[in-house]
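Please decode residue identities from the backbone states below.
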């Protein structure tokens, strides 16, 4: 079959990390998708929640806290890579550059966030709590000219809502609307309901 290979950026919400059926559910979901290069990042879940709680008590410099949280994302994606050893684990900028090849084969890739998103490199996203892995996944989709952005979450959404309306309701972060014009089509999946059923 000829034609352009599809690139799909997938963000796994951090709240899903504690789901007992997460790993088997991810394997099933990925197998059910249209063949593509699936490029996945993971949220920080309770690790980031703990930092947010600390920051609520001891106010810190926003960019410093933001980049501390980005560093913590190494932990959750590293854990996921141990559970999914069949997926290629991208940990460095040099490895990330290989993903930009038009000949990238279909397959499943886990990306450490700091392989493509680093302090001082590109100020496109606010360096504060407005930016979570929703917007970082959007930034990844922009960098890779992805065909689709999929946000795996723990809630239902109304597909008629705009990105701005989703942000107002707290379903996506406040930074995602800032880059919305540059994004591919977005699909939000209530992944928790899929793996609980």
């Amino acid at each position: 079959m000829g034609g352009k290979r599809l690139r799909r950026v997938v963000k796994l919400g951090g709240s899903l990390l504690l789901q007992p059926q997460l790993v088997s559910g991810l394997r099933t979901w990925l197998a059910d998708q249209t063949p593509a290069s699936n490029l996945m990042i993971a949220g920080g879940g309770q690790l980031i929640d703990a930092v947010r709680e600390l920051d609520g008590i001891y106010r810190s410099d926003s960019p410093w806290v933001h980049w501390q949280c980005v560093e913590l994302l190494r932990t959750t994606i590293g854990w996921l890579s141990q559970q999914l050893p069949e997926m290629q684990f991208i940990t460095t900028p040099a490895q990330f550059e290989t993903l930009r090849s038009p000949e990238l084969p279909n397959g499943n890739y886990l990306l450490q966030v700091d392989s493509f998103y680093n302090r001082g490199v590109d100020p496109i996203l606010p360096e504060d709590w407005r930016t979570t892995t929703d917007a970082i996944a959007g930034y990844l989709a922009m960098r890779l000219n992805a065909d689709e952005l999929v946000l795996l979450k723990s809630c239902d959404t109304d597909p008629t809502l705009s990105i701005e309306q989703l942000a107002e309701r707290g379903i996506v972060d406040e930074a995602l609307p800032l880059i919305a014009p540059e994004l591919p089509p977005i699909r939000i999946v209530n992944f928790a309901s899929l793996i609980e059923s």
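Observation: The longest strand covers residues 7-12.
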